[in-house]
């Protein structure tokens, strides 16, 4: 599967891509002065990767809330909820793999830091079964991981800094990939910035920031002046997910924009000085008529927002036809089971898939299903784990009657042993030679011959198989419950 997205173009007009899978493993740091185009870069990254990976956006200025208008994001307005509710939401988004925007706009700095720390810690502490890959974007990261103490209490600063450190230092094993943006590297805690392996450096003017940016990009100090000359929206990129050598790029356009006023010049109002003076200093009415304001929308209840997180509406529904009675015509419903079978076979065609963790495999499965225009992922993680194990054992469609006895014989074995047992059972049914250690290891998810031998010994102790070896060293394995045996190999 192609996990690359186009982020912009270089000086020669060639496309510059970011490998999202590599980015998830190596993290990203974006730096640039105010007005350099950091938010535009993050928005481009989020838009282009929205269909590839779950996204969590810590948004202190409310700039990214408009993504929810075009993509499948749930906006959490932090000011409407208490700390316990924010913590619950942080845990549930990992369980349900919802892309969310944590809007901190209405909070003061101290409350923003506390809320972000609570949310990130809840994501970090999620159960192992919920460690799905997620891209965690933190804008204005220097606010949440300050290099020095400021006006906020030390306890708040330590909590926020600890959460950011966990995200950047220990988050990778939990599927969390930090992508942080800051105006000044000097204001960002060094232990947070140092964990990123990919860098996108925009325009900056202070010598200390240029020197640190040049060091991160592997440039000589005399080349640091190049960073000062960058135009708005232009960045220098380096890292395993971007380029092995520093590359200059112009970030591409975005489909959405922030809700803010224009920065362009506007014509001044045409009015005589006397008229302006009369408007400014006119006598106030004794009882001015009350100004009619549009009522603010009621905040979404925490329970309703959690329901949205658990079952977000898909951004793109599969195209279906509706008959006169309002029902979807059967001929236009996607054959979900056929799509599942095709996707599993495509995944098995990649020899490395047998050795990847379940969370990463499930992410791949989810993306492939969406590419087949399914409105939602048809299998939960536990069911996917079972179906993928069956597919590795050669059983793509477990509903076929011919597999009933084999599946019954495998019921008492641990889930991770189902695939190698099914390979052996299929060979016995077909009268084929016994699968070799390499094939069984691939089904079991290991390259260790020792683990394969211990696996077979365990299945034999459980009475699931009987191993025979002739004087020539050829092995055959029998399945007592089926009364069948493989050919010697």
From TrEMBL:
Molecular functions (GO terms): ATP binding
InterPro entries named in the record: ATPase_Atu1862_pred (IPR014588), HerA-like (IPR008571), HerA_central (IPR002789), P-loop_NTPase (IPR027417)
One Pfam family per UniProt: DUF87
Keywords: ATP-binding, Nucleotide-binding
Positions of the Helicase HerA central domain: 5-99
Signal peptide: none
Family matches, as Gene3D superfamilies: P-loop containing nucleotide triphosphate hydrolases (3.40.50.300)
Keyword Magnesium in record: no
Protein name per Swiss-Prot or TrEMBL: ATP-binding protein
Source organism of the structure: Parasphingorhabdus litoris
Classification lineage: Bacteria, Pseudomonadati, Pseudomonadota, Alphaproteobacteria, Sphingomonadales
